[in-house]
Design goal:
- This protein is of the alpha/beta class.
- Helix content is about 35%, strand content about 15%.
- The chain has 11 helices and 17 strands.
- β2 and β3 form a beta hairpin.
- α10 crosses α11.
- The radius of gyration is 21 Å and the shape is globular.
- About 45% of the residues are buried.
- It binds pyridoxal-5'-phosphate.
- The site of pyridoxal-5'-phosphate has 15 residues, from α4.
């Protein structure tokens, strides 16, 4: 793609992007360089949990940036210690390793499980993952993912990730043998189209993994940090996993991710894990600002309430246009369109100044800022309503 004012060609072409350049954001709103304003229900792919450039994060970054940006991962820094303690205090986990992306946190989880198998389970190293799962774009996390489009890519894959089916305990049980060390899953499969694991499945999976001495790893990179109305999604099921990964929302827009584990599962030795920017105070300061707000019970309740409102509005829209189910929890929802028209709807909404995401051809995914308002939801739903009607897709039943 070329453009007379923007050097688009200087970037590697890794995905189709509209020729629009964003220059400013505030809360649920984004502006491009022509001054056009967009209502953002993508929010960096469920990243900006407090919206664009929230004062709490910009102030934390400015304050920390003026004090200390990075002393090297070979030394402790106060922001990472405080954030680790805050995460440990608000979860069932005992220790934290900070990373820079979700994929890197998941790589860490995979390594931790393999190390655990080497130390405690005669070298067991296989990690059961799930069809439709998504864990990142490094070689190991692509191999752990159950995304069909990844299958032909970058062969040979990293071995050791047999796939079970979500919400099918017997499919997990069948794969367990003496090579198995862990089961790893997203509590809601986001990239696949927002397919939730049931609370009952999570509960039974916890019992099954305990009975076989296996680690349970929850990838909460999309579902964590308040997205579903609890600080961490697995709390809905009342379970305590052994390992959890966080990304996206924990940094509120900056590259921060975390690997958390119980004391029993923490078995890295010197040299096993690390990274130049891991736990740098600048990103951790943003994480602390996020956690202080998102971790408050009143905030989490407001996410759950706003999620119910969005869900009800989408259900009304679905009934009005003869569409399918609304899936998900809190502010991670999908609307099943029943027919492959998601791409056209997203394109049309973009023209109207509303940013939406289509994880598959027949579904829309909604992942607004956790502090989005009912008014903003109404604006987005009105845009969808008009778009559906205009596309002639409307099969009105009321
Ligand atoms: C559940 C899940 N795991 C892992 C990742 C990878 O995170 P990142 O893109 O930060 O590497 C994502 C990103 O979409 C995700 O949704």
């Amino acid at each position: 793609m070329t453009d007379t004012t923007h050097p688009f060609d200087a970037l590697m072409e890794i995905t189709a992007r509209p020729p629009v350049v964003f220059v400013r954001g505030e809360g649920s709103w984004l502006w491009d360089d022509t001054g056009k304003c967009y209502l953002d229900f993508v929010q960096g792919w469920a990243v900006n949990c407090l919206g664009h450039s929230p004062p709490a994060i910009t102030q934390a970054l400015a304050e920390q940036g003026g004090r200390l940006i990075t002393p090297s991962p070979a030394f402790f820094n106060d922001a990472s210690l405080r954030l680790a303690k805050a995460l440990v205090d608000q979860s069932c986990f005992d220790q934290v390793f900070f990373a820079n992306s979700g994929a890197e946190a998941n790589e860490g989880a995979i390594k931790l499980a393999r190390k655990f198998g080497a130390l405690h389970k005669n070298g067991a190293h296989e990690i059961i993952t799930f069809d439709g799962g998504f864990h990142g774009r490094t070689l190991a996390t692509m191999s752990a993912s159950g995304k069909k489009a990844f299958e032909p890519l970058f062969e040979p894959k990293v071995a050791g990730f047999p796939k079970a089916r979500l919400n099918d305990l017997a499919s997990v049980e069948r794969l367990i043998d003496d090579k198995t060390i862990a089961v790893m899953l997203e509590p809601i499969q986001g990239e696949a189209g927002v397919w939730p694991a049931t609370d009952r499945f999570l509960l039974e999976l916890r019992e099954l993994t305990k009975a076989h001495g296996l680690l349970l790893i929850v990838d909460e990179i999309q579902t964590g940090c308040g997205r579903t109305g609890k600080l961490f999604h697995h709390e809905h099921a009342g379970i305590e996993p052994d390992i959890m990964t966080l990304g996206k929302g924990i940094g509120g827009g900056v590259p921060l991710a975390a690997l958390l584990a119980t004391k029993a599962a923490c078995c890295f030795e010197h040299g096993d894990q690390g990274g130049t920017f891991c736990g740098n105070p600048l990103m951790c300061a943003a994480g602390l600002a996020v956690l202080q707000i998102v971790g408050a019970p009143a905030f989490l309740k407001s996410v759950a309430d706003t999620g119910l409102y969005l869900e009800s509005q989408l259900q009304r829209l679905s009934a009005r246009h003869g569409l399918g189910e609304v899936r998900g929890r809190g502010l991670l929802l999908a609307l099943d369109l029943k027919v492959p028209m998601a791409g056209s709807i997203v394109g049309q909404a973009f023209e109207e100044g509303v940013l939406l995401n289509a994880p598959r051809a027949d579904a829309l995914r909604f992942m607004p800022a956790l502090n989005t308002t009912r008014h903003e939801i109404d604006l987005m739903v009105d845009c969808l309503d008009t778009g559906l009607a205009r596309m002639g897709a409307a099969r009105r039943v009321v």
